Amino acid sequence: MGSLKNEEELEAKEAILYVNGVRRVLPDGLAHLTLLEYLRGLTGTKLGCGEGGCGACTVMASYFDRNLKKCVHHALNACLAPLYSVEGMHVITVEGVGSRRSELHPVQESLAQSHGSQCGFCTPGFVMSMYALLRSSKVPPTEEQIEESLAGNLCRCTGYRPIVDAFRVFAKTNDTLYTNAQGPTGGELLCPSTGKPCSCGSKAANDGEKSRACGSGLTPISYSEIDGSSYTNKELIFPPELLLRKLTYLNLCGSGGLKWYRPLRLQNVLDLKVRYPDAKLVVGNTEVGIEMRLKRIRYPVLISVTHVPELNVLSAKEDGLEIGSAVRLSELLSVLRKVTAERAPDETSSCRAFIEQIKWFAGTQIRNVASVGGNICTASPISDLNPLWMAAGAKFRIIDFKGNIRTVLAENFFLGYRKVDLASGEVLLSVFLPWTRPFEHVKEFKQAHRRDDDIAIVNAGMRVYFEVKDQSNCLWWRCPSFTFCIKNKRFFDWEELEQELLQGALAVLEQDILIKEDAPGGMVEFRKSLTLSFFFKFFLWVSHEMDGQDYFGESIPSSHLSAVQSFHRPPVMGSHDFEVRKHGTSVGSSEVHLSARLQVTGEAEYTDDTPIPPNCLHAAFVMSRKPHARILAIDDVEARSSAGFAGIFYVNDVPGDNMTGPIIADEELFASELVTCVGQVIGVVVADTHENAKLAARNVHVQYEELPAILSIEEAVKSKSFHPNTERILTKGDVEHCFRSGECDKVIEGEVQVGGQEHFYLEPHSSLIWTMDGGNEVHMISSTQAPQKHQKYVSHVLGLAMSKVVCKTKRIGGGFGGKETRSASIAAVAAVPSYLLNRPVKITLDRDIDMMISGQRHSFLGKYKVGFTNDGKVLALDLKIFNNAGNSLDLSLAILEHAMFHSNNVYDIPNVRVCGRVCFTNFPSNTAFRGFGGPQGMLIAENWIQRIATEVSKSPEEIREINFASEGSVMHYSQRIEHCTLQRVWNELKSSCNFLNARKEVEQFNLHNRWKKRGVAMIPTNFGISFTVKFMNQAGALVQVYTDGTVLVTHGGVEMGQGLHTKVAQIAASSFNIPLSSVFISETSTDKVPNASPTAASASSDMYGAAVLDACEQIKARMEPIGARHNFSSFAELANACYMERIDLSAHGFFITPDIGFDWETGKGKPFRYFTYGAAFAEVEIDTLTGDFHTRTADVFLDLGFSLNPAIDVGQIEGAFVQGWGWVALEELKWGDASHKWIPPGCLFTCGPGNYKIPSVNDVPFKFKVSLLKGAPNVKAIHSSKAVGEPPFFLASCVFFAIKDAIIAARAESGCNSWFPLDNPATPERIRMACIDEFTKPFADNNFRPKLSV
C-alpha cells in the first residue's frame, strides 16, 4: 500500500480542463457528471439518447501522447464520457469550430450550403465528427474514411446524402480527373463526382482560388504534430499548458458517495482493487456508463486506467501482438492495419479478421474510447470480438495485487453469462494475439439488424489449420467447436468434402447450440440457421483461399464465389433533375434553409437549450409497470425523503379536468383507479435536478391487482376490443355481385401484417413551463408540432382560460407526427406542479421513456379478398382493415380513415368495399406518423397486387400498369381524379431507370450467383393532400413591415426541419419584391396567431404560404397609392413613407382550403384538395445465407408542380425515402406480447438506439437519384406548387418489393415457386428465413413466418 500512498501525495492541486480554448478548473464532487451534463451551458452539444447511439453529443477531445510525441484528436460521445475522464484534455465543441459572428469553418459552411441540415438537432454532432477526422488526418481523408467516421451519427431528416456530399469536398482529389475528363465529344468536361458535364474544373484553374463547385476539394493550409491539420487561420490551438503539464494522480468524488480514481501505475491499480474489490475499471465508460444510467446498477468506486503505461502496451513481437487491456479499439485497429501491410499475409489472417470485425464495432466515437480489456471483461454474450479471441488462440495475461501473472487461453476465460476467470483482486493485464501459420485461416462473422453500429444477432470466429500427416494422408480441419478428419484422400473432391463437413457440423451444432423458444432476443430459428450459414460460408472461404494448393482438387463453383466476397460499399452518389420556375425575387429558388448557419454552428436553440430560470424544478413521471391493472396502493414515503425532492402530485391534485384527448376526452392525465398500459402516468415528481427527480420517481412503489391485457390486433379482434364508434365503411359498385357473377377468373384471399415504427426524432419531448402574476398566467416553451394543443391541454387541466396560457415554439428537432398530440399531455402533466408551486418546471424525457410512452406509427392488419381476370385486371376488392390504437383513441380513427382512403393506392377498381375498425389494446396510445395511415393502406394494396402477378405469371409492374387510375377515374370514396400525372411520372421513371434492361441484368446476375440474389421493383403512389377533417384546413398569419424595409412574419406553422419557414419567407419576399434576407420569422406563438391547426398533413406550405400571401397583398394594397405617387429607390423608402402617412403596415392573413369535405354517413365527398403523384425504382442485393442486403440503386420521381424551393423539396424526398426505407426494411418494434414472451407483458424492448435501429449513413442507396416532373403546374395550390412532406415516404416500399423479388429468385433455386407472405420490416431474419435452403430446413418449414408485434 506504500506505493499508493506515495502516489496520493502527488495528487493534482487542481483538476483542469480546457473547453474551446478556455481554461476551467474542475472542482471536486462532480464525479457523477458526464461531460455532456457539464457542457450543457453551451447549446451546441445535444442530448439525443444518453447512451452513445445517436452522435448528437459528439465533441472532439485532444490530449498529448507522450509516447508518440504528438497530440491525439478524436471524436467522442459526451453523454458517456465521465467528466473527470477528460481532465487534462482540450475539449472542442461545435462553438469552438466556428460561429456566425466570427467565421464559419469550411466544414460548417459546406454543410450549410449543401442543404445538409434540416431540423438541425443532429447537425453539430456531424460537424464535430467530420472536424475531428480532419484535425487528426495528416493528409485529406478518403471518401470511405469520411463515411466511416459518420457511422456513429444518426440523422432522421436528410437521408444522409447531402451530408456526405457536403463533406466529400474534403476527400482526396486528383486534379488529373478534370484534365482528363473529356466528354464524349471531347469538348465538355465531365465532373468526377457526378459524371455529368460541368465547368468546375476549368473554373478552378482560372480563378486562382478555392472553388466551391462540384468535385472540388478543400485541403488543409497547415499541419503540425501538436495541432493537427488546420483549414483556417482561426483554428483553436492545443493549450501550451497541457503540453508542459505532467500527469497527476486523481482522487475525486461525486454525489451518492461515488469515488473516482485515476492512478498512473499498475501497482496503484492493484492496490486500489485490494482496497475496493468491487471497484470498476473504466477507460471509455461505454459499458459501465450504460449499466449505471440505463440499468441503474450502482458502482460506488470507479478507477480510470487510461494513463497506466503497463495497460497501454501495444507492440508487435516475433510470435505475435501484445495488446494492453486499456488499449482503445481505434488504436488497435490502426496497428492491425499497419502490421497487416508490413508482415507476410499468412501471418496476419487473424489480424485481417479483427480489422473487419472492429470496422463494424459501434461507431467511431465509441471505438475511440472503448478498450480491449473492457470489452473482454464485460463478457457480453453478444460481444463482437470475444469469439474471435477464442478462435484466434489468443492468450490473456492476468495479474494479481502481488504481481503474480498467470496466462489463460481465451476459450477458457469465459465461464458463463457475464462471468470470467478473474478473481476480485486480479486485473486483465494484456492480450497476446499469435501470428497465424501457413495454411491457417481465421475468419470473422457477424449478422445484425443494421450493418454498422449495431448489436450482433449472431457472431462467430472460426479458425482452421491444415496439417498434412505424411503417413495417413489425412487433412485436419480444426475449429473451436469442431474437429474433422477426412481420411485416405490425396486430392479432395469439393462436393464430397462439402457434404461430409456440413453433415458433421450440423450434427455437432444440433447438440451444442441449444436455444430455447423463449430465449432472450427471440429469433430462435434464424439464430440457429445462421450458425450453419456461417460455417458454410467459412468452408467456402477457406476452400477459395486454398484454391490451387496441394490436397485441394477442383475449385469451388463460380456461382458460389459471391458468398465469400467481402462487402465493400462504394461511396454514395446522388443526382438530381429538376427545373427552376422563378416567381419574383425568391420563390422557385433553391435557397438554403434559413436556420442552416445557426444549426451548423450550434447556435440554433431548442427547448432543452432554453436557459433555466432561477428556482426551476425538474419533473419526472411515476409510471405504471403493468399493462392492465387496478391500483391498490401507492407508497411514496421513500420518494419524499429523496435528495432534492420538492413535491409529488397525483390525480387529486389536478386543479381542472383530469380527462384529456385531442378528439374525445378518453385519456386520464393521471391514472386514478386503473392503468391500461405500461408507462401510463400515475404521478409526477419534481426535484432540484433531473437526476434527483428520476431517482425520487423510482422510489415510488405502486401495488397492483393485475387484470387481463389485450396485447395484439389479433387478440383485440378475437375479444371484440374496439374503441367505441370507430367502425367505418367505404363502398363502390357491388362487391358481392361481382364475386358471384363469374366475371372474376380468379379470386384470392389473404392477410397482410404491417409493422409499426418509432418516430425517433433526435430531440426528445421537452417543455419548460412557468407562471406569471402569481399564477394568473401560464407560459411555456415546448417542442411540439401543435402549440395550440399545448395551450388547450394546459388550460383545460389547470382550469384556466386559453387566453391566459401561451405556448411558444422556436423550432423542433424533428417531429414526423410524434409531437402533434402526445407532446401536449406531457406538457400538461408538468404544468400541474408548476402551477401549484408557482415555480418553473422543466421536463425533458429520456430517450427510453420517450419511446416507451409517446406512441408510434400504427401497426395494421389487412384481410383481403380480390377478384381479377386472367390478364390481371382487378374487378373487386373486399378489404377488412384494423389498426392498433393502444389505450386511447388519440388520432387513430382519422389514421384508419386515411388508410381506407389510400387502400387502393393508384388503382381504379370498379367494385370496392373497405371496412375498418380501431382496436383497443393495452399499449401506450399510438399516434400520427408521416403518411398518417396512408402508407399502411397502400402497402396492403401492393401486397395483393404482387400476389396477383404470381397468380397470372406476369410481373407486378405489368399488373400495376393494367390497373392504373387515370383522368376522370372515380375513387371508392367518390372523388373524381383531376389533373392526373401518374402515367407521365411512371413512364419517365421507367425511362430513367431503364427498367427492362435492369430486369435483364438482374436475371443474368441471379443465374450466375447461388448465394447472392438481386431484385428490382417499381412502385407508384398518389397521396391525397389536406386534413380529412374539414375545419382543420385553415391557417392564419401575421405580417409586419418595418420602416427599414424588413419584414417580420409570424404564422401558425412550426419549423421542424421541413423548411416551412424558409418557403413562407420566400413567398413573402417575392410578394414584396425584396431579398429573402429582408424577411425574418422568429417563432410560432399562440398569442400571435390563434387557433392554429397542427403542422401536419403535408399541407403547411400550402396553407400558411397562402395566409402569408394574403397578408402581404393586404399591405401592398395599402402601400400602392403611396408608391404610385413617388418613385422610391427601395422598399425601405416606401415603407418609411407609408409610415409617415400613417398607413397600417401590419396585416393578418387567413386562408381556408376550398372545395373539400367528406361525409362518412353517406360515404361521399371530396376529402382531398389534390394528389401528389410519384413513383420509385429500386435494385437490391441480398445475401441469402444471412439475410443481409444493400440497396444498389434508388430512382425517385415526383410531381411537385412548380417547386417553391427545389433543394428543400429534394431534401424532403430523400429524407422521407430513407425514413420509409427504415419502416419497410429495418425498424422493428418488439413488444411484450404472445409473439415475444421473453419480454415482460406490455413492455417495449426496442426503447433506445441500442435495440431500435434507424437507417445510418451506411444504408443510403449507392446510387440515389431524385427527379421532379417538369412542366406540370398545380392549379390548386400556391404558386402552382405541391405538397412534399409525406408523399415520398411510401415510395421506399420499392426497396421492400425489390427484396421480395430477390427472395423469389432464391426460393426458385430450391424449387419453391409459389407465393409467400413477407411482413415489413424485411429484416435480415425475414429475408434469410424466406430464402429456403438446406440450412433453414432443419429449423423451419417452407411456410415459416417470423414473429411480428402487430
Quaternary state of this entry equals single chain
Structural class: alpha+beta
The DSSP helix count reads: 38
Distance between the termini: 60 Å
Main sheet overview: 8 strands, mixed
Estimate the helix proportion, in percent: 25-40%
Sequence stretches where pLDDT stays below 50 over 5 or more residues:
175-215, 471-494
Average residue pLDDT: 92
Task: Please tell me about this protein's structure.
The chain is of the alpha+beta class and 1350 residues long. It has 38 helices and 54 strands. Helix 28 (892-901) runs parallel beside helix 29 and helix 29 crosses helix 30 (956-962). Residues 175-215 and 471-494 have low confidence and may be disordered.
Core attributes:
1350 residues, alpha+beta, eight-stranded mixed beta sheet, five-stranded mixed beta sheet, 29% helix, 22% strand, globular
Question: What does this entry show, briefly?
Answer:
With 1350 residues, the protein is α+β, with helices and mostly antiparallel strands. It has an 8-stranded mixed sheet with strand order 29-33-27-40-37-38-39-48, with helices on both faces. Strands 2-1-5-3-4 form a 5-stranded mixed sheet. Strands 14-15-20-16-17 form a 5-stranded antiparallel sheet.
